[in-house]
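Good morning,

Attaching, inline, the backbone tokens for the sequence recovery test we're adding to the shared suite. The designed sequence is right after.
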């Protein structure tokens, strides 16, 4: 068992909170504006974390470097129990991490698409 803010939590393989980077803090700032004023922040974060714990929102996979990788092997009840033990800051970290991760994957996809276009233009016969 792990302790989070005085509460017990089940250890999950693959979940290792990492230090917040500048990019993570910038994404976290933009996350605050996305929380609806009528929703309770904690409930919103728990719902988001549960959705993220089901699969990668980018491609539906379960990347080994994802902080929720090990959690995705648990059943729904164990997953909810584990998420319930996290603090608001830990839930917010998971949301910010995934927001930054998706942004980076989209950026890399755009770069690869542009490189493929350039390569295709170079292969076109010159008339």
């Amino acid at each position: 068992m792990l302790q989070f803010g005085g509460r017990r939590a089940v250890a999950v393989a693959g979940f290792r909170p990492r230090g917040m980077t500048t990019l993570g803090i910038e994404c976290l700032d933009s996350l605050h504006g996305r929380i609806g004023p009528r929703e309770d922040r904690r409930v919103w974060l728990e719902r988001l974390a549960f959705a993220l714990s089901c699969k990668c929102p980018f491609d539906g996979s379960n990347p080994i470097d994802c902080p929720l990788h090990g959690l995705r092997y648990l059943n729904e009840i164990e997953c909810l129990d584990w998420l319930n033990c996290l603090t608001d800051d830990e839930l917010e970290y998971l949301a910010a991490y995934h927001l930054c991760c998706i942004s980076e994957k989209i950026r890399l996809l755009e770069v690869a698409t542009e490189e493929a276009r350039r390569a295709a233009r170079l292969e076109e016969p010159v008339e």
